[in-house]
Amino acid sequence: MLKQANYWLIILASVLISRFVGMVFVPFADTTEPRYAEIARLMVETGDWITPWFEPGVPFWGKPPLSFWLQAISIHTFGLSEFSIRLPAWLATVMTIGLTWRFAKEVCDTESAKWSALVLSSMALSYVSAGTVMTDTFLVFGTTLSLVSFYIVISGGSQAWSWLFFVGLAIGLLSKGPVSILLTGLPIFLWLALSIKDFKKLLMFPIFFGLLLTLFLVLPWYILAEQKTPGFLNYFIVGEHFGRFLNPGWNGDLYGTAHDEPKGTIWIFWMFATFPWGLVTFAWFSKFLWIKIISNNFNNILPNRLIQFLLISSISPMLFFTLAGNILWTYVLPALPFFAILTGIIVSRSTSQSRALWRWVMVLVVPSVLLALVVSVLLDPKSIESEKEIVKHYSQNAHKDDSPLYYLGEAPFSAMFYARRNLKEVTIKDVVEILSNNKYRRLYLSVPNSYLANTDIEILSESNIVAQSKRYSLLEVNMSDSDWRNINE
User: Fold this and answer.
1) Strands 442-448 and 472-478, bridge-based pairing
2) I want to staple 131 with a disulfide (CB 3.0 to 4.6 A). Which of 19, 171, 418, 455 is the partner?
3) How many CB atoms lie within 10 A of CB 329?
4) Are 471 and 385 in contact (CB under 8 A)?
């Protein structure tokens, strides 16, 4: 019979393994996942490990290459699939959870460490991002490694951690860019500012040689990237790190559109990102502050330097992005490991039998909801915005004398990925010309459902629909039909 002390590890493993279901069976949904997956696929195809390519001939200057390197290595190792491209993010999340557990055990106690790992693994954003093709999971591992190393060294721990601090900076710079330095430096500065005398503890770090280590790991790629595609540094440093965040309607994005959110939206994103544990911690802090207010006792609101560090690290990303409008909910991610430790401390001290059940139920809330969504996608592939089914139908049914796969208008990223870019974008004028030339036995044309429903063009309205996605219908036109042959007569 298993010891009760091992239950938490079994639950943790179950939560992490449950993420595999979505990683394996759910297709890439537009736009982030297939876009980044296609960049990794092109890296493998071209053998170019310096410049990530948005599409052949168009460099992708939006992100550094660490995530694409790891995804490309995974493709080389396991073959091209949704699972292989998602696997590096899952591994990065597992390492971040392990680092969170290690830190909590070092500075708190074993029980708090266990619950910190469980909380982090089962929060909405960390659970979703664990199996998603994105760059943020690697950023959060880098920032967490640096902040954890910083506190352990400042607290008198092993000096080996001081070198890991600079390794964490390098990981952040290669996964997201200079913003990682700000996300690391802000909580450190705010925490030291609460006790000015602690600034001298920075001398415990090998600052000069540590920065040399970071530059040694990072600078070669930045130099080679600029040399290979001049203009990269201006776009990435100036545009992505100043234009994007200072201008909510920034129109300099070469690869998509800006997200114009009201200022302060990052705190709303925090509520979704930390679900369901954010509600628990918010309720506990509200109760704690209310007791302080009614007792008129405001001493020891932040009782020690550890709690101060955890709280500051938990809110710094939101403070940084409060005035930014061009944001996503993934920007909350660097805060979650430290918020998980705060929550783990609270939950581990809630020991009454009446509360034991809800603690375990809370762990399973997000995985259960996500697994239910995965099952719904498997039962109805059209419930998500992915072109996998349309591309699959074409590849299984088209013959050499049939047309290429045509998309009316701009093809979605998922279509590009699953078709390996073996498709063509056309206008309705192009379609009429293709039909007139009668070059193919069958024409395959993917048309937006909204367009198809409102068109009065006979070619489209009377064609056979052989496959559908949430947004598109694949039409099959028999070119031997005399009506199509004589379209211009």
Assistant:
1) antiparallel
2) 19
3) 20
4) yes
Instruction: Calculate helix-pair angle for 66-78, 160-175, nearest 10 degrees.
Output: 90
As a whole number of angstroms, the distance between CA 239 and CA 219 comes to 19
Please, are residues 18 and 367 in contact by the beta-carbon 8 Å criterion? yes
Tokens describing residue 148: 């954890």
The pair phi, psi for residue 107, each rounded to 5°, is -105, -15
Q: In what order do the strands lie in the sheet with 442-448?
A: 423-426, 405-408, 442-448, 472-478, 464-468
pLDDT tens digit string along 56-110? Answer: 889 999 899 999 999 999 999 999 999 999 999 999 999 999 999 999 999 999 9
Per residue in 325-378, pLDDT tens? 778 899 999 999 999 999 998 888 776 655 666 777 788 888 888 888 888 887
pLDDT band with cut points at 50, 70 and 90 for residue 308 = very high
Q: Which of 40, 255, 15 is nearest to 115 (CA)?
A: 15
What are 172-219's pLDDT values in tens digits? 999 999 999 999 999 999 999 988 888 888 888 999 999 999 999 999
DSSP 202-230: GGGS-HHHHHHHHHHHHHHHHHHHHHHST
Check the CA dihedral 306-309-312-317 and report its sign: negative
Fill in the amino acid letter for 324.
A
Q: Which two tokens stand for residue 312?
A: 């500051």
Length of the chain equals: 489
CA distance 397 to 377: 24
Contact 266, 332 (CB under 8 A): yes
Burial class (CB in 10 A: 0-12, 13-18, 19+), 434: buried
3-state secondary structure 438-463: CCCCEEEEEEEHHHHHHCCCHHHHCC
One-letter amino acid for residue 347 of the chain: V
In degrees, rounded to 5, the angle at the alpha carbon of residue 73 between the alpha carbons of residues 68 and 78 is: 125
Cα–Cα dist 163/114, whole Å: 26
Angle between helices 7-25 and 110-122 (to 10 degrees): 20
User: Which has the closest alpha carbon to 95: 126, 64, 63?
Assistant: 126
CA proximity to 71, closest of 107, 44, 105? 44
For residue 443, the cross-strand partners are: 477
